[in-house]
Amino acid sequence: MPPDGTIDLRRLGENLARERERIGLTRRQVARFLNVPTAKIAEYERGENSQISITTIEKLAELYGHTSDYLWGLKDEDPLPTVGLLNNKSTKRQMEGIAWLNGFILAMFELEELWGHNSTVTAG
Description:
The chain is globular, with a radius of gyration of 15 Å. The protein is mainly alpha-helical. It is built from 6 helices and no strands. The protein has one domain: lambda repressor-like DNA-binding domains (434 Repressor (Amino-terminal Domain)).
């Protein structure tokens, strides 16, 4: 969530819609992934629902291969090298697996930033 607590729902909605379309998912698929009605996804994407939870944003960020800060509109970033969908007929279970893998990849990039871009970890 933005540090000052204000939410630009329009920008959030635009980011959600753009990223969903970028990876080739339908609103129905995303709704199934989140266990919400399809109409709720449409509301989020139109910026009409101020009740979207932080947990929901985090789940979508992982599914879409971005940080939640990007979806909130706090950072401009290129998509990280994440796992994408094979096709738009992916099942909920496949999307959960992809979201988990993307969350792992995002965590690795965050660790890399903390350690420095060219550092390596050695045992010893």
